[in-house]
Amino acid sequence: MTEFWSRLLSFLALMAVAALIVWPIAGSVWALLLFCFGLLGQLVFHLRQLQQLNQWLENPQVRAVPEGRGVWEDTFVALYHMARRQSVSQQQLSKALARFQRAGEAMPDGVIMLDANDQIEWFNPIAADQYGLNSHTDIGNPITYILRQSQFNEYITAHNYSEPLVMKSTRSQNTILSIQLVPFGEELKLLISRDITRFEQVETMRRDFIANVSHELRTPLTVVGGFLESLQDYTDLGEQERAHFFELMRDQTMRMQRLVEDLLTLSRLESAANPLQEENVSMSQLLQQLLAEAQGLSQGRHQIGLEVLSDTSLFGSESELRSALGNLVSNAVRYTPQGGEILVRWEVVHGDGRFSVKDSGIGIEARHIPRLTERFYRIDRSRSRETGGTGLGLSIVKHVLTRHQARLAISSEVGHGSTFSVIFPASRLVKSVAVA
């Protein structure tokens, strides 16, 4: 600005000197006209530069900054550098905003940005899926229009966001969300929501598991404790009664022992520190062992058949496979009435190994089949206790098959028996090599 005034004063001084020179020659009128024309030309020049500045301000692009002349050259140069710095800063802010949006979109949780009036400014795809949001219609709407639940309204108006709010999703009653508001900036908020359905299911399973174990152990312990009190209080019991008491106590103790062993087996199968010990397992030999165990458990009460339609072996853990497949065979014996038929088969179907146990037992209603592999799930608790089951057998089967990339298929009809089939992938099969 100092240079501008310096140049202007210099120009005025020059015009004054020119007028003084002309005055003696052409007279005062011409000298005054010369001075006025000089001022007019200077005014037109500056108005022209101001016009270029105004045109540029309507669309301020760095590359379109006017070049400028005279005292305006330095001004436009300074304006160019300022616009360039602003452009660089704007690009950096745009990149930072784009990174923030990409980070928000990549988050596994739902994120909604709210303004000071709790209106939606932005949300990521997870939030859109959780709440059914649409960027064209929901941006600018209050969040309470979307989450029309009294507990959420109480949470957002209480202004106490130290603890998350657990509530069911507005889109699906089977989905449970953990919602927390995080204030930031000037009265802005982030609404972060996490799908905790699986964690809630695990917690429910844990509570049910503890309750079931407690119940399963309490009954035999009560029986054993009652008999011990009887033996202690009634010293004149006959030998036959004592033998009966001891036999019942032994049965209940063995029941508890089987339960503990199954629990330990499940714990071992679920442990990440227990890798699968794999080897070639001869299915023909394993099935012969399972047949012998089934015949011993049946004691001649059933007709048990065995069909080995393939000499293909399996690559896996022999002990785990014996436990899982043995569970299926023993279940068939336990739940098939006397005189019933049981058929154990091993074959290769469409490239996959298939182990199946077919019985002519009581059958299973369709509504029970999806839950059969749940821990302690029983169709008939009294019948399960009579047969000596712990309620964990099919859970063990499920874990063993998962470790072997196999799956369990169940088909059953009430009154006509059941078929439990285990399908092993082709990658687990080992073709036997004939020895010349």
Give descriptors for this structure.
436 residues; alpha+beta; Beta-Lactamase; Helix Hairpins; 4 domains; 5-stranded mixed sheet; 53% helix; elongated
Determine the structural class based on helices, strands and strand pairing: alpha+beta
Number of strands: 13
Measured on Cα atoms, how large is the radius of gyration? 44 Å
Strand order of the largest sheet: 2-1-5-4-3
Main β-sheet description:
5 strands, antiparallel
CATH fold topology of the largest domain: Heat Shock Protein 90
SSE sequence, one letter per element: HHHEEHHHEEEHHEHEEHEEHHEEE
Count of distinct structural domains: 4
Task: List the total number of helices.
Answer: 12
| CATH secondary-structure class of the largest domain | Alpha Beta
N→C terminal distance: 106 Å
Estimate the helix proportion, in percent.
40-55%
Oligomer class: single chain
Strand content: 15-25%
CATH architecture of the largest domain: 2-Layer Sandwich
- Relevant CATH superfamily of the largest domain: Histidine kinase-like ATPase, C-terminal domain
List the uncertain runs: none
Give average pLDDT, whole number: 78
Shape: elongated
